[in-house]
Amino acid sequence: MVRGRPREEGIDDAVREAVRALLTETGYQRCTIDAVAARAGVGKAAVYRRWRSKAELVFAAVIHPVDLEPPEDTGSLRGDVEAVLGDIESSLDGVEVRHALPSLLADVRADPALEARFAEVFLGRELGYLVRMLDRAVARGELSRRPEPALVHAILLGPVLTWLHLFAEPVPSGGLAAALASPLHAAVVALDV
Amino acid sequence: MVRGRPREEGIDDAVREAVRALLTETGYQRCTIDAVAARAGVGKAAVYRRWRSKAELVFAAVIHPVDLEPPEDTGSLRGDVEAVLGDIESSLDGVEVRHALPSLLADVRADPALEARFAEVFLGRELGYLVRMLDRAVARGELSRRPEPALVHAILLGPVLTWLHLFAEPVPSGGLAAALASPLHAAVVALDV
Question: Which of A174, B99, B133, B167 could staple A178 via S-S, CB 3.0–4.6 A?
């Protein structure tokens, strides 16, 4: 397929599409930065300017970008928890992420510099948004003080990640976020003692 | 190192030690069934009689055996949740499991027959024990009926797995099981509505 080079602002989209297509067609191992650049019709330098490693590129393309949207303020902690769970569920669901995630985590685990960057760029961004959600709940009087954000992060992300990526079961009818919102809201409230 | 063949009843232990040593020394990729059998000083046939695949062998050696010990009855659901979390934490903690798990999950994900067997043998066993724990809580009057066991499984396993295998943070002082017992007990109780 021959096509022109995407303009600067179209590069992110072209790269994201190329990653998703290559993961489906050839798998994680063969979805290299060279292959992505060729498929997207962009220069390798343009790819490396944006993402420092293949793991980062794949994470941003299939899970969530570095500039993740902040979670909405629904007016209550219960609503905010369900909205965050919905964001986590939609970012972790899908055949590309299902196939890419274990290999991606193996790459990250094998390289301490990559692990540190991954923690800072992706997990750090998620954590920052949970801090906002918790501070809103404190401001509303729903929590007396902000619980440890990393525990809240594990409590909200863990069950969704485990269901979608470890269990081979269909999601409960109505979706995982709806099924988990009440119990995990209760868990966050129970941290406030 | 030359040593005699372990007697039948010592094979499991010899294989487990060989897997752990090879994972540390050479990593998951090179921890093959051949290498494990040679290191343990047992025949390959003896290894294949017990475990159908490398992924199964590694899981049983570093995470938990097929004949997992049932969780203790502590007399309350709160206590049982903390005991189960402690079992999960100790089975998922440690440098071998930290390095092996992503590659192991990538292998399982890539092979539907292996995935089905993994779900049956390991996850199925864990789920069966959670059903016992929940039924005890119903018998004590702590829950009105048994909540969906797969949701409880995701709620208890997910946060521990996520903290130990995704976050690069030290465990809270006192341990993860102690920090998560109250919030996750509240989550299980909140499923009972």
Answer: A174
Q: What is the pLDDT of residues A88-140, one digit of tens each?
A: 999 998 888 888 888 888 888 888 888 888 888 889 999 999 999 999 999 99
Query: Does A151 contact B123 at a Cβ distance shorter than 8 Å?
Result: no
Q: Which residues contact B68 (CB under 8 A, 6 or more apart)?
A: B125, B126, B129
Give the model confidence (pLDDT) of B116-170 as tens digits: 888 888 899 999 999 999 999 999 999 999 999 999 999 999 999 999 999 878 8
Helices (H), chain A: 11-26, 33-40, 44-50, 54-62, 77-92, 95-109, 112-118, 124-140, 149-165, 176-190
Interface of B with A (CB under 8 A): 28, 98-99, 102-103, 105-106, 109-110, 115-116, 119, 123, 148, 150-151, 153-155, 157-163, 165-169, 172, 179-180, 182-191, 193
What are the structure tokens assigned to A36, written together? 């992505």
Tokens of A177: 């976020």
Sign of CA dihedral B48, B51, B54, B60: negative
pTM over 0.95: no
d(CA B88, CA B92): 6
Q: Are B80 and B136 in contact (CB under 8 A)?
A: yes
In angstroms, the CA B67 to CA A26 distance is 38
Q: What is the ipTM of this complex?
A: 0.89
